[in-house]
Amino acid sequence: NLAPERVRRSMLLPGRTTMTTRISSKDQLLKKIENKTAHLAVVGLGYVGLPLALEMARAGFHVTGIDNDPGKCNLANQGKSYIGDISDASLKEQRDAGRFTATTDFSVIKNVDAISICVPTPLGKTKDPDISYIISAAEQISIHAKRARPASVFAFCIKECIDGASASFDSLVG
After folding, report:
1. Which of 32, 35, 73, 108 is an S-S bond match for 102, by CB 3.0 to 4.6 Å?
2. For residue 156, what is the DSSP state?
3. C-alpha dist (Å) from residue 135 to 35, 45, 52, 55, 98
4. What is the pLDDT of residue 92?
């Protein structure tokens, strides 16, 4: 496994004792994406999240879908679609290939490299988006994510949304 913040590789060179090369977390993630070894998660398996998760799985990534609704997770894991635009066959194909699985357990976050949040943002009475679902997802991520995981990039978490949560933005990005 790679060191949390940076990887140090030492190599002997003629006339030198060692040389250290540092690889950033961003570079690690990009390399994992390039060679399709990144483990991705999608929080929210509704009409946006499930199709996104399946597209990432079709592209060759291992994807874990996370949803609070055990019914959705059970159906997805059985290869039965509850979204009109997703066929049972396409869901089964990715599940059977081992590229897609669904769970209600946020603790799987500790093993992923990147997370997409696809939760509802319904409009309130004043026509402002209700971001409580985003805040709840971000709180769960902050509880379960390994701090300073090598290839984790949580920059997609909108700072304004995190400010209202009990976890700070800095605790998410490490």
Report:
1. 73
2. T
3. 32, 17, 20, 25, 30
4. 98
DSSP state at residue 123 = B
Pair 101, 40: CB distance under 8 Å: no
Phi, psi of 159, rounded to the nearest 5 degrees: -55, -40
SS (H, E, C) 7-50: EEEEECCCCCCCEEEEECHHHHHHHHHHCCCCEEEEECCCCCHH
Task: Identify the segments of the chain with pLDDT beneath 50.
Answer: 1-21, 148-174
pLDDT of residue 23: 55
The confidence score (pLDDT) of residue 159 equals 41
Indicate the pTM of the whole model: 0.73
Distance between CA atoms of residues 122 and 135, nearest Å? 13
DSSP per-residue string spanning 88-118: HHHHHHHHHTTSEEEES-GGGGGG-SEEEE-
Tokens, residue 47: 């009409």
CA 50 to chain centre: 13
Other CB atoms within 10 Å distance of the CB of residue 133: 19
Q: Under DSSP, is residue 53 helix (H, G, I), strand (E, B) or coil?
A: helix
pLDDT attached to residue 57: 97
Pairing of strands 19-23, 7-11: antiparallel
| Separation of alpha carbons 106 and 18, rounded Å | 42
Please give the pLDDT value at position 20.
Answer: 43
Q: How far is CA 57 from the centre of its chain?
A: 13
